[in-house]
Amino acid sequence: MRKNRRNRLRLVGAVAAVLVAVTAPSAQGATTHEEPPTLADLAQRHGRYFGSATDNPELVDEPYKAILGSEFDQITPGNGMKWYATEPQQGVFDFTAGDEIVDLARANHQKVRGHTLVWHSQLPDWLTGREWTAPELRAVLKKHIQTEVRHYRGKVFAWDVVNEAFNEDGTYRETVFYKTLGPGYIADALRWAHQADPRVKLYLNDYNIESIGPKSDAYFKLAKELRAEGVPLHGIGLQAHLALQYGYPTTLEDNLRRFSKLGLDTALTEVDIRMYVPADEEKLATQAQWYADLTEACLAVRRCVGITIWDYTDKYSWIPAFFDGEGAALPWDEQLQPKPAYYAIREALK
Ligand code: 9MR
Fold this sequence. Notes:
alpha/beta; TIM Barrel; carbohydrate metabolism; endo-1,4-beta-xylanase activity; GH
């Protein structure tokens, strides 16, 4: 009796061992290859993407490219799809820079956000160097938008159609487009883009609209009007260029939610969190907390579709060149080593 029981137990044990041996390696191998999951893997478990901007000059840096290709499932060209790059002479289009990034993304199975079709900055000289009548500028704008959107049809999943259209107080920015064409240029731009690629998601994108306030209110009001008029607008991009000295945007989650309720997607499109340098342990800890908080805010709102950091390493951040004495804004340092922010994002995504 006793012996029998012991034999049976031994048999059960043996079967269990075989089962473990058979199932464990394949289950493990399929999901992790024994590597820890990447930010992209973790984000995908929530149905989100986790991306990074990149820029053509950086693509000769192989160690940089290795992390760019493995950790993220979405890429935004930092400059390569802007007007100055894509239509350097009127009617002469050059998609070399953008194509290089699209090809790299394809090789790494990453999706691409198109950035950006209509913006007052980084315009070619032929456009800024003269006066335009409304009919002339309309034709120029339509041709630019439609040629570029057609070129990238099926290659980008979203476009920042109009970038940075509002001032801080919620009034329209007096760009050449606004001054010449009036506020209707935004609806026109969206309609033209939609004609050129009916499937791509069309966004308005801006900075300092993470909090509820005059500038994000202006987007809310415009988005509501555009939706009511049936204009093809699908999402609002919140750039999220944050700075420790200005405080965390505590109304971010509520703000994302109110856009969701209009039937719009949202995305954090250009995240970085700068500080006065040198960085120290305390500043890096606060930065890490903010990265976690904004990740959690996005995860908490169903239609927040993903997060893009504005490049991933301090080595290639735009901040030091634009803000005197500031930097250290990204989750990897200048030596491509992960900072506390990186681990905080991972935790937030778990
Ligand atoms: O990252 C871009 C940087 O390389 C350019 O020099 C800069 C010029 O304005 O634009 C940067 O990207 C901007 C983005 O296109 C729109 N939002 C603000 C970003 C930072 O300036």
